[in-house]
Amino acid sequence: MLSYLMGRLVQAIPVLIIASIAVFMVLRLVPGDPAASLAGEEATPERVAEIRELLGLNDSLPVQYVRWVTDALQGDLGTSFKTGQAVTKQMRHALPPTVELALVAYPLALLIGIPLGVAAGIRPRGWFDWGLSGYTLVTLGIPNFLLGILLIWLFSVSLGWLPAAGRVPLMEDPATALKQLILPSLALGSGLAAGLARYTRTSIQETMGQDFIRTARAKGLREYTVVVRHGLRASMIAVITIIALQVGQVLAGAVVIEQVFTRPGVGRLIIDSIHFRDYPVVQGTLLVLVFVFVLVNLAADVAYGLLDPRIRRA
Amino acid sequence: MSAHAVTNLSRRERWRTRVSESLFLTILDRLFRNSQGVVGLLGLGILVVLTVGAGVITWHEPNAQDAASRFLSPSLEHPFGTDHLRRDLFARTLFGLRTSLGVALLAVTGGATVGICVGFVTGYAGRWADALAMRVIDAMLAFPNLLSALAVITILGPSARNVAIAIAIYNIPVFARLSRAQMLSEKHRDYVQASRSIGAGPVRLIFRHIAMNAMPPLLTQVALSMAVAVILEASLSFLGLGQQPPAPSLGTLISGSRSYLREAWWLAVFPGAFLALLLLSLNLLADAVNEAMSPWVRRKA
Asked: Is B262 on the interface with A (CB under 8 A)?
């Protein structure tokens, strides 16, 4: 197990390095001089040169990259051009709304998607299977932001049941905060639930046709035990793969959904920073999101090893 | 069966022979025999006709602020109503669809071409070129699609053209990885050895012999990537990073509707319905292409 673990870790390192180089290059590839845009329109050339020196832009690219990564690893992602605040400080403010959204939306998707997939998979062409086909078709046609708009139209504008926008911290006013989370979570979670259900269905259907399921039934086990303890466990590998991949969709989806429901999260921070050309913030935020995604996939690899002895010995 | 043997067959039988000998005709034939494929092709066909013929179908300019009033509900004069700037929503939707389809088509064509070339060449060459390319591809795939597009838009600035470039760049590693895998499974086959032994060079081997056999899964991916590209374009436009006003795109139209949901439901519903129809058609088509290809895929496995 340890050597399997080390192997996955070693494979993740070049990915992280190249991805961080790509993010680092964002700031170097933008047209114009970052120092000049930071100094402002009417800055003297001396002032611009001073800022260049301060930012270390006169050093060679590899030197700049190493310094940037070393700083980032120590929790320093640079300073915002717009506000002059540390990027990490802005991210600390922006993270809670996003984390709340992800932590409500994705478990919701898991709770709907996996049972629906199992129900559809053990009875192909049954009620649940047809239901899943219809549900899948609807979610394939309606992307998350469109669903968000339609939900606002129905539940906020027409019926007036739920707020269309805003965010109060969960800890301060849980009732209002949850009300504000319902629509965004539905908008973000529905498509993910359909994807999960589809994969779970395929995987369960394959598993249920195998010999060990027949054996489990022949032993006289209850159907519930056969499906959950034998079928679902063997299908978990496929399900965990899709969960790890979907974390990327949760991150990307949150960016869009926060814009629909005007939640002041990481997504809004990125989009606003792109519009304001506040490159250090874009860079820092992207770096954090990509690292989270890579680490989640690493965790999924580890989970395979834990679930299936054949993988960790291979 | 050689061409001479079929001369006594009826025209219909000759046609069937021809179809069975051509990969593309067979796929088309199977698409038309598949109900999902027919619905997908029909839906996509209607949308393409509507958007290509937009200038003839609608008598309004998409950006002209010439309606009698703002927020007119749907009528004969304005089938989809008008928006807050007295513009005709039907014209804007048709031209918006043009942006969405055009960007997606350009992005997938560009990304697939570059990605397939990279995948074939590095997969064929092997050794350090392959190892290096795989590391870069893995790293590019570490960016969820929207985030990768955001990074490119940050560098290039918001516009429809740059969205196409961003989506193309996202598609490069997707196609490179798939075509590399195809190359690895093909390059040691007998027919490749045979062509090499009669003196075919690497370029001829890759693009004339192997590419033809490696095509089916790549075509399925093209269909899937089109649907993803349409969603990405719409999302980026929705975020204000794509097509810039006043020119329309389905994403900007939907995003613009958000402030007026109380006054004008049609602003969200009609562009949304077009986007949904486009995505459904593409997804049904992707499914049907995948099914039409599966005998080839199975034969390889």
From this structure: yes
